[in-house]
Amino acid sequence: MNIRKRMAIGSALIALGWLSLPGFSSASDQVAAKKILQQNCVQCHRLEGKPDSRFNLKAPDLIWAGSKYQRPWLIRWLTGKEAPLYSKGYRWDLNQTPAKHPVVSESEANALADYFAAHNKDARVTVGAFDVTKLSRYEADFGAMAYKAHACLGCHTIEEDGKLIGGPQSTALHESGKRYDKDWLYRFALNPQDFVPHSGEFLADATDPQVRAVIGYLMTQGVKDFQYYEPWTSAEFDKASVSRGKVLYKEYCSQCHGLTGKGDGPAASGLEPKPAIHANIPFDQLPMEYLYNVINHGGPAVGKSSNMPYWNLTLGQQGVADVIAYLKATFKGAPESTAATSAASPAAAAAASVLPAKAAAIAAPIAAVAAAISSSGGGGQSDACIQPRKTVRAPDSFMAMKNPLPASAEVLQAGKELFQKTAKPAACAMCHGDKGDGKGMMGAALVPPPRNFTCNAMMKDIPDGQLFWIIKKGSPGTGMMSFSGLSDDKVWQLIHYIRSLAR
């Protein structure tokens, strides 16, 4: 049979209603769909009316179902291929056993989806209001924090590190990225009580950027291999200018980092931690995600000091691109000798500069003898590797913590992967070095320098709980950022690996 003849027969079959196509419903299908709704669905769901409290309803409203759901999910739900949305039941005040939802055939599900699309649209929803293709990983991570900050976790479950967390009292959201229409979900989040009184009160207090971040985060839930937008691939970066970046660096960045990037700008004397020494950083080797986030979104975006402003509103995307181009073209990192000098303890250097000559003459041989005694046991480093710090002591509840994970090969490998590559907001090796000796590509730029984890004389006296607290909270007055987004298990994996570096 030739192609033209097959097409003609196929067209005839469709016209006669003998073939069922997704998204296509005849008038008879619409009548059948309405009949199903009237005989079954309206016993629990409302198809029209004004928003009302859950405590006056039997099931979620379908008033705006044509705008609310993604069609593939809706078909799966109606044909019984999706898990219950309310694990404790919609009316948990009456019964905490989830109701079994009626199941329809594939063709009936398609007819119902078409009926909703034709008759149950939400006029309040602006199509295209939320562009999920422009969602960056940073924005999704920020959305995850905002989601928790606005108490959403208290009622809704989400997936985090392969586990379901959150209160199962309301709609499960761990598959929300496959279920909801992005524009409807955004409009819902602007004021949930426009849809369901007694719902989402705290999210209604969020700013629009926070709402967008939360919705972006929810649109990643349940979506395997979500494709995040990378802002540094935008057209502004294709047009980046080193000369424009040089001007912006002088006007803004040099106030703290100095005209030549030596961290000696006029504001630096009053800042703790001290501004990064750009002259010692090989910017062309830094991950673009990190570099973009710290400049565009500010220090807190990568766990750094809030003294580093967010420049996106001041410079715009083109300005950020220009500054990054200038940094990459200008600063290539410190020579080995400079890096080694920078890695020396600033506290020790300061003490030496004010120590009277006579006292220094006495102290030097004593220190040499102490180092010799310490190293005479063989194998380990001497106490000379200890870096003076004024680190805040963790609360007692943390100090009492012990690593609950076994120091197995699997745990150590997971910790190594985090340390070397995957920890966010930045891999530990960027500052602490691949060997953990504090000589990472950014190490020479930090004052004080990063911890030398290979120094057993220092590491053996730091309790597990102190390390856990510092990794989670960061260390004020240093370049140590907060890794609050890491799960507890991942922090403990890191701690096992960090301890394995000491010798």
TrEMBL record:
Keyword Heme part of the UniProt annotation: yes
PROSITE patterns: CYTC
Top-level taxon of origin: Bacteria
InterPro entries: Cyt_c-like_dom, Cyt_c-like_dom_sf, Cytochrome_c_Oxidase_Subunit
SUPFAM superfamilies named among the record's database cross-references: Cytochrome c
Keywords associated with the record: Heme, Iron, Metal-binding, Signal
GO MF annotation terms: electron transfer activity; heme binding; metal ion binding
Pfam families: Cytochrom_C (PF00034), Cytochrome_CBB3 (PF13442)
Signal peptide start-end: 1-27
Protein name as it appears in the record: Multihaem cytochrome c
UniProt organism field: Candidatus Nitrotoga fabula
Lineage per the UniProt record: Bacteria, Pseudomonadati, Pseudomonadota, Betaproteobacteria, Nitrosomonadales
